[in-house]
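Throughout this review, each integer encodes one residue's backbone shape. One record appears below.

===
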Amino acid sequence: MSEEPLREPEPSADPAAYLGLLARGAAVEAYDRPVLLARASGAGPAALAALEHAKQLALRVHAELEGRRRREAELSALFETAHDLAGLRDLDAVLRAIVQRARSLLGTEVAYLSLNDPARGDTYMRVTEGSVSARFQQLRLGMGEGLGGLVAQTARPYVTESYFDDERFRHTRAIDSGVRDEGLVAILGVPLMLGSQVIGVLFAADRRARVFEREQVALLGSFAAHAAVAIDTANLLAETRSALAELERANDIIRAHSGVIERASEVHDRLTELVLRGGGVHDVAAAVSEVLDGSVEFTEGPLPAECVDGHATRRGDEWVAAVSAGAETLGALVLRGQPDLDPVDQRTLERAAMVTSLLLLARRSAGEAEQRVRGELLDDLLDAPERDRRLLKERAARLGSDFDAPHVVLAARIDRPDPRAESHADRNTDRHVDPHADAHDTEREGADRQRLWSAASHLAATRRGLASARDGGTVLLLPLGPGDTAAELARQTAKHLGGTLREPVTVGASSPVGAPATRPGDIAPAYAEARRCLEALRLLGRSGEGAAAPDLGFLGLLLADPRDITGFVTRTIGEVVAYDRSRGTDLVRTLDAYFASGMSPVRTKDELHVHVNTVAQRLERIGRLLGPDWQSPPRALEIQLALRLHAMSAAVAR
């Protein structure tokens, strides 16, 4: 049997050519060349198939190598970021480095980072890279607003290929304007998490449509985790620096009084531990009592002048250290059972007083912050009830309020004699009027409003309601308990606030309002009704009381539906009101004083401080305007009611 002749290798048909391409790191386009050359040189189908198979294998190896190079670069960047965190000195610098690396590795035109603001309930821009728009760099996003607000609210990453065409999140004019100024189209956002808490969002964005791959989302999430660690580390460092500063001050005392080093150190450690673990004023008193081997008690109230100079002062067998903040005295720490204290122990008591003042101020600040948040929510219900009901309900839930329960709106005001009426009487009797009286009255009214708001806010917090300063008084939104009525709630509120402030506080209540969560638009009309009820109580001489419209009889029915009040007043005394308005006369006031004086011209002239002939002339003019029977019992009753309603409307308008 004859042997077949040996065949020469076909030109360019060697699959090993792809090894050379892989070794050189050639581009993907170069992998088509061996097949094309083999086909051009006449290679057979088997050779071409082998080459094609080798090509596919080589491309898979190439893709794997590229993936490994990319992951190596990502890991290198993450390692560098972790290295920066280890030597953290400047939080802004670390966050800026994270944003720059995220932008570089994802190949985006813009990257930025926002942080949540718990006090305002939104998220704001902290660091941007590649941004050119000042408006964009200053954006604040409410929870659930825009892509970033959605990420901050849900704690989940979100990506959009075309921001303005994406309806998954709520677009707002401010956010869309900022994004449009920056020219962004494709956006990826991932949450910054500390445990289960979202503290901000990390973004990567392009000014063109783009699909972000799953690996890129995961990579940005890794950078977000590093950013969260950086923020947490910076906060811990700040706390550490504060603690170190406190320790340094304690060391100064120790060096100056070497004989009591251990005792002073113990005091410092105990107080620092109390502050760090959130201890209270009585915890500080107990700790100092143990260290000084005596009985320490915190007392409130004014102190003698010699006890408020910032030093521990001996008073009989007691030592007193004032607890103060600036010029305000909050109370004192009183030490009993140790009549003799060395200078270091005196400083120990003084330091305890300083720590006590810080704790009191912190507690006050926290309380005032919560009061402001409660007031802001109530203001939103009154001024912007069209806002997202779900967000309003969530804000209420964070404050412990149940917006699914029925509520009552209450209008409250401290009642004192009207200084403007007294000034008017002074002018009519030529008595001397203090030129500074108006300024004093304004200052006192401002202080009254502040005191009333503070007391009402405390009451609202304990009743799981809301309170806000408004229209010269305070408005409250309180839940209505089972079996309660609006009138009873008004009486309880007037009694509580009056007892707290030791001043007469008048409270008007609205009719019950259904669940504010579903009908926030009912709050503003209910507040108007409560204000009308408040003014009616004051005009009826019932200052310091609380009531709802049903308590006021026929007047209450008018107050509950104000649509016909203006018509009734106009039909009854409209001619007199119009005459005063056009000529600057005082017929309405004369008419009111006439009825208040039992329809006696003599007593009326004493009330108005004018001559009796002037009263007679005014009554004659009133008779011509109202008709000859205006003093008959039926007409007189209607006129007096119209005068009351007119006065109430003018008071509410002010």
